[in-house]
């Protein structure tokens, strides 16, 4: 023999080293010679390589393969390069976009075994493994022989597939039959057997048998059940069929050393099984053959068997009545409800066989795989005890006796093949692609837990899987790994289980029957949960927040037309500016029932320091939210930040913003005039309708562990200054900076001296006043230019410190309110009360939604033990040399790292804290009523009151109002309305209340105000009360103002654009009852007589400049107006009386036609005639000096004059009105005057009051029957009022 080369010697030395470490030593003589296993391996290698050793390959042990190989690979010892390329090319034909397995030049040698060692005990689970001295790894084979167990093999072709998460080792796919290192064992010569046709009667009748007698049965494998593991007992069923008939017998295999048979058995092949005994299941009565410890599985060979008569074996005792342990445990553990059969459109699934290629893993945890890009394979109803090894994209599988379900779920796009316990899944070929291995969870799999607990049919299971997939995708990034999120225990269910269980309980029929798995496996007539199904239309959905916002925006624009926002009778008289302004802002509300199917909101509660609003957040997006309590108390629970919430009863509000240039109302149908459409979506709900699926950990504890302050930091807040670098954030720039710098340095030293400890300092305070968000002249130095300053969005609150700062060793030790309890013991004098002004800027703006009046809060400073930390950061609001009031509260800038904790409300203090409650009495803010605010005797300038919004109107900012600092600045980022707009809120005490006050809010404030919708009850705080030049009282929102939602609008609100007071019918009154204190009556009704028309004016004005529009063009000359569109307008002043008094009524536009009694056609013809003249006016003799100029020669004027003087005009009418508050002739207390009245020839003298000015809201003709009824009602009401007065 030639001397080996240097390369071969090195290779052999590496082989010896591998054998000493990985292969067991042989029983040969000692010395340097290699152990016998290596000699046998080298002999196999030379035989496979044609006599040469594969020097290009290297040996690899099991442990090195698991630790060093992180990517999928394959090794083909005997293949050439061309053979490998052809093999990979065939794999790419299945999935062209996937890469093929890379080739590794490795030699794998090991023993095939059917168990693994755990605590020095061999654990057999039905899987096969490859092992050596260094480790053990699972393996999958397409073909297996029983003689291979515990034998040493060389694996010429194999693939290693690691796990995707790298948390555990992967497995090995044996691509071709392994080469035995030693010769196999020999098979026995002759075996006596019994065939199924002879053995089957033993299972149907009680034939006596000899004690401990065993039976050998030979037959063709007709059906192979899946491996099942119940209470750590693994078993499976097989069915042997007679060669010449359809008679078959079931065999239960449950011995650990026989579970490997499951890898050997192939359908259609003939086998012989020895050592069988007969048993029966107690609960179901099914009989079967059961293998014993000595049972053997042998391939059937006609030359090696001989048939044995039953008479010589089976006689004597009766059959065994005790069932196998595994069968009893199977019955006890799977008490599953049977899916209720629903009458009607239930479908019967078809049982088919199918061969396909896995093209995608839809959800391995749920057992869903996609075959051939069009068929879904569901293996959830079987147990994947081999952890779905081999089922990678590119693998070919054969499905036998699976259920075909077409369209089980409306939203599911694939046909489904479901494998039940009678189905067989055979892996035909491994994947040649470098696709990952995703093992299903071995325990805590919520998909399978809920499937078995509620015995779900395929439609419900697919729907449940879609919900769980959505849940995992949206929230796993917030709560760690998926397993943590889906983790479930009986006493402490996880978030996903809390979400799903009520939904499943609502749709799963309540039945006491259990899923009979024995019938499913053993019965002659097949029964299983997949047999019948009903196409499911999902009852609800929980899409991502980005999808929710997108769908809500779509619904808000579906069928939307600008004409929907305006009444045609009003729109036709509006100019261009007013028309487009009225269209600029609208809204619509959606509920869960507005979506099909019903939409459930899920989100993590967050708070943004950018928008200073609460938000629901998931992986996709955020959704601003408004949370209220049904009892009217504000939401202030800071502990819920970071919690996962579920809301099913909510109002999804879509605010619509339009930029339009409609010339007139006639073009409203032409959407080309819509230049821009924007929306703002938010949700509002009550906290009582919230279910907390996952409570957040303590935010302080998170900050202490991470060492970076509060855990609420978000990605979108990265640009916000994280900390107040200096305590120089002041309203004025007149401070002595040296003093503040020294104060800051001492604070920094105290912080650095404490180190990163878990100590924290807290201070309790009471909020006595809160101001709204706005740009204020508090300034933070910018990082890039410390000299440059810019205004900061901020808010401030006046608080009262209670007690002294407290030091805690850990935030978890913070008690409820120890400061107040100490006060109860020591008396009122012990409570230290010091007022302070808290300044919230930067990231501390996140506390804006939680800070409310009369609330007791606590600031917690983490990593701090300095009790003077609050005093060191305080500074006077103005420099000391300008400070005139010694009692002026000090300002305290709230640091970004401080945590706010809500304690309670003043009204909720316990009995132990009553003394503190007495001390704090009177500190709360005075809340007035709307009648008090509107009273002429009211003297305050800042008012707080609550009321319900009855109307919301966008209007131009008042010209006499000086713009605030915020309004005068450029349009803020995020504001969708022009800064020259204001919103007018008409607020009443209660729905239908006659008392209404108007509140004006500048548009630049609105981006921080959510939920100002008609029907909502709002608490307005610190509004400025004003009196107009017409002596009307109204309120404005200023820098010190704030609002809070007390209750949300009802879901059955009228049309959002309906004016105030239209929701309820107006009350019938007398003119003599209109007193000065009723001047804020929004709407009332009188039955009156139209006496005469005093003035009448019809005109066409330019839609742009409001000049007279004549003959199709504007008459303005300097400068000329380019408009070619006119708007018709009409006004009239009439005199009415109801027997108790007289009144002047101002009518506009369409109400003029009603007063004149003109039909629609006559009114249109009259307007067209006026268009050529521009303007036509007439006046009655009593109305001289009103400014109306008549044109006596015009025939239109003559017609109108004769019409107004016609007796037909003077008639009874039903008039809806409001008091005209704009003219200077407002009803004021005045002495009664004497007037002469003539009735025929009789003249009367009576005292009458001044004529009130009314504004016409509606005119109705009164029929004779209605007139009689109303008169009788009016007389009855008058009599009742007089009777009450006499009694009093």
From TrEMBL:
Listed A to Z, the keywords are: Chromosome, DNA-binding, Nucleus, Telomere
Taken from the UniProt entry, a GO cellular component term is: nucleus
The organism's place on the tree of life at top rank: Eukaryota
Report a single Gene Ontology molecular function: DNA binding
Please list where the region (Disordered) is annotated: 704-756
Residue stretches of biased makeup (Basic and acidic residues): 727-748
| Similarity remark | Belongs to the CTC1 family.
Give the protein's recorded name. Answer: CST complex subunit CTC1
Q: Which organism is it from?
A: Grus japonensis
What lineage does the source organism belong to? Eukaryota, Metazoa, Chordata, Craniata, Vertebrata
């Amino acid at each position: 023999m030639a001397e080996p080369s240097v390369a071969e010697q090195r290779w052999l030395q590496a082989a010896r080293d591998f054998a000493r470490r990985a292969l067991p030593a042989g029983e040969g003589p000692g010395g340097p010679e290699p152990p016998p296993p290596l000699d046998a391996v080298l002999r196999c290698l030379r035989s496979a390589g044609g006599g040469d050793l594969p020097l290009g390959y290297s040996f690899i042990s099991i442990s090195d393969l698991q630790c060093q190989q992180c990517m999928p690979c394959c090794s083909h010892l005997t293949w050439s390069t061309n053979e490998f390329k052809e093999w990979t090319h065939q794999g790419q034909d299945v999935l062209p976009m996937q890469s093929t397995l890379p080739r590794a030049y490795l030699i794998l040698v090991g023993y095939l075994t059917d168990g693994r060692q755990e605590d020095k005990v061999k654990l057999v689970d039905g899987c096969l493994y490859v092992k050596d001295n260094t480790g053990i790894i699972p393996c999958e084979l397409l073909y297996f022989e029983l003689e291979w167990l515990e034998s040493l093999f060389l694996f010429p072709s194999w693939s290693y597939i690691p796990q995707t998460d790298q948390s555990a080792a992967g497995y090995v796919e044996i691509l071709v039959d392994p080469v035995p290192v030693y010769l196999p064992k020999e098979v026995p010569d002759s075996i006596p057997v019994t065939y199924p046709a002879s053995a089957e009667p033993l299972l149907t009748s009680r034939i006596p048998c000899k004690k401990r007698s065993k039976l050998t049965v030979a037959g063709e494998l007709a059906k192979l059940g899946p491996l099942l593991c119940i209470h750590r007992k693994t078993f499976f069923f097989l069915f042997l069929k007679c060669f010449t008939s359809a008679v078959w017998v079931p065999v239960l295999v449950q011995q650990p050393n026989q579970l490997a048979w499951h890898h050997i058995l192939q359908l259609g092949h003939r086998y012989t099984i020895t050592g069988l005994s007969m048993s029966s299941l107690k609960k179901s009565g099914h009989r079967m053959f059961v293998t014993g410890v000595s049972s053997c599985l042998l391939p059937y060979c006609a030359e090696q068997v001989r048939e044995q008569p039953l008479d010589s074996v089976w006689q004597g005792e009766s059959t065994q009545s005790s069932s196998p342990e595994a069968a009893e445990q199977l019955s006890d553990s799977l008490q599953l409800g049977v899916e209720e059969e629903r009458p009607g459109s239930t479908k019967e699934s078809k049982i088919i066989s199918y061969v396909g290629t896995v093209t995608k893993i839809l959800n391995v945890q749920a057992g869903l795989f996609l075959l051939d890009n069009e068929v879904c394979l569901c293996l959830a109803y079987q147990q994947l005890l081999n952890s779905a090894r081999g089922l990678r994209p590119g693998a070919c599988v054969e499905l036998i006796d699976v259920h075909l379900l077409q369209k089980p779920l409306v939203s599911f796009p694939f046909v489904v093949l479901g494998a039940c316990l009678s189905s067989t899944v055979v892996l035909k070929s491994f994947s040649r692609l470098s696709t990952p291995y995703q093992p299903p969870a071995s325990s805590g799999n919520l998909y399978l837990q809920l499937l078995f607990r509620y015995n779900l049919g395929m439609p419900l299971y697919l729907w449940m899987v879609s919900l769980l997939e959505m849940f995992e995708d949206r929230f796993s990034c917030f709560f760690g790994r998926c397993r943590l999120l889906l983790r479930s225990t009986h006493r402490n269910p996880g978030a996903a289980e809390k979400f799903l269980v009520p939904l499943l309980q609502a749709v799963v029929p309540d039945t006491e029957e259990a899923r009979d798995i024995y019938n499913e496996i053993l019965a002659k007539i097949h029964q299983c949960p997949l047999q019948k199904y009903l196409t499911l239309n999902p009852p609800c959905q929980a899409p991502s927040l980005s999808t929710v916002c997108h769908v809500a925006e779509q619904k808000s624009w579906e069928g939307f037309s600008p004409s929907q926002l305006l009444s045609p009778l009003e729109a036709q008289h509006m100019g261009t500016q007013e028309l487009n302004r009225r269209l600029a802002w609208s809204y619509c509300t959606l509920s869960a029932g507005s979506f099909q199917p019903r939409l459930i909101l899920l989100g993590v509660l967050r708070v943004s320091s950018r928008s200073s609003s609460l938000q629901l957040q998931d992986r996709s997006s955020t959704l601003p939210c408004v949370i209220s309590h049904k009892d009217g108390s504000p939401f202030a629970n800071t502990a819920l930040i970071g919690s996962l919430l579920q809301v099913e009863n909510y109002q999804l509000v879509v605010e619509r913003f339009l930029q339009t240039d409609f010339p007139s109302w006639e073009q409203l149908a032409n959407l080309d005039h819509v230049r821009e459409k924007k929306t703002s979506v938010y949700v509002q709900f009550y906290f009582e309708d919230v279910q907390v699926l996952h409570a957040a950990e303590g935010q302080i504890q998170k900050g202490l562990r991470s060492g970076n302050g509060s855990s609420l930091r978000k990605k979108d807040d990265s640009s916000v200054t994280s900390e107040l670098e200096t305590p120089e954030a002041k309203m004025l720039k007149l401070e002595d900076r040296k003093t503040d710098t020294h104060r800051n340095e001492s604070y920094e030293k105290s912080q650095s001296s404490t180190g990163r400890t878990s100590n924290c300092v807290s201070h309790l305070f009471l909020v006595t006043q809160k101001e709204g968000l706005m740009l204020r002249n508090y300034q933070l130095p910018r990082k890039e230019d410390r000299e440059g300053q810019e205004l900061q969005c901020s808010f401030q609150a006046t608080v009262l410190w209670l007690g002294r700062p407290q030091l805690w060793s850990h935030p978890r030790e913070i008690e409820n309110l120890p400061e107040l309890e100490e006060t109860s013991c020591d008396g009122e004098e012990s409570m230290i009360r010091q007022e302070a002004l808290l300044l919230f800027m930067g990231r501390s703006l996140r506390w804006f939604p939680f800070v409310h009046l009369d609330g007791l809060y606590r600031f917690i400073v983490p990593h701090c033990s300095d009790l003077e930390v609050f005093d060191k950061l305080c500074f006077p609001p103005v420099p000391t040399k300008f400070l005139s009031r010694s009692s002026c509260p000090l300002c305290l800038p709230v640091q970004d790292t401080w945590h706010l904790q809500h304690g309670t409300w003043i009204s909720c203090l316990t009995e132990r804290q009553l003394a503190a409650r007495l001390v704090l009495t009177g500190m709360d803010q005075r809340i007035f009523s709307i009648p008090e605010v509107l009273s002429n005797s009211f003297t305050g300038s800042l008012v707080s009151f609550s009321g319900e919004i009855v109307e919301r109107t966008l209007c131009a900012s008042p010209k006499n109002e000086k713009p605030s600092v915020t309004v005068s600045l450029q349009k803020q980022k995020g504001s969708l309305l022009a800064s020259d707009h204001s919103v007018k809120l008409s607020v009443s005490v209660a729905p239908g209340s006659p008392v209404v006050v108007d509140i004006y809010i500048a548009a630049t404030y609105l981006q921080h105000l959510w939920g100002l919708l008609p029907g909502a009850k709002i608490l307005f705080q610190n509004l400025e009360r004003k009196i107009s030049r017409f002596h009307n009282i109204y309120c404005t929102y200023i820098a010190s103002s704030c609002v809070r939602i007390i209750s949300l609008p009802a879901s059955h609100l009228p049309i959002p654009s309906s004016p105030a007071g239209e929701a309820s019918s107006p009350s019938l009154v007398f003119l003599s009852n209109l007193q000065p204190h009723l001047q804020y009556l929004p709407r009332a009704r009188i039955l009156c007589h139209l006496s005469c028309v005093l003035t009448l004016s019809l005109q066409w004005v330019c839609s742009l400049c409001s000049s007279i529009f004549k003959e199709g063009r504007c008459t303005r000359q300097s400068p000329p107006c380019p408009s070619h569109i006119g708007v018709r307008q009409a006004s009239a002043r009439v005199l009415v009386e109801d027997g108790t008094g007289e009144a002047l009524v101002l009518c506009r536009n369409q109400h003029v036609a009603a007063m004149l009694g003109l039909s629609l056609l006559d009114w249109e013809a009259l307007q067209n005639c006026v268009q050529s003249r521009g303007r036509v006016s007439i006046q009655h003799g009593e109305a001289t000096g009103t400014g109306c100029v008549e044109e006596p020669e015009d025939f239109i004027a003559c017609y109108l004059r004769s019409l107004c003087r016609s007796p037909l005009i003077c008639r009874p009418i039903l008039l809806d009105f409001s008091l005209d508050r704009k003219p200077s002739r407002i009803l004021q207390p005045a002495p009664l005057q004497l007037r002469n009245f003539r009735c025929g020839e009789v003249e009367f003298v009576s005292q009458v009051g001044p004529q009130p000015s009314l504004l016409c809201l509606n005119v109705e003709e009164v029929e004779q029957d209605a007139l009689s009824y109303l008169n009788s009602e009016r007389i009855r009401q008058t009599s009742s009022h007089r009777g009450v007065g006499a009694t009093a």
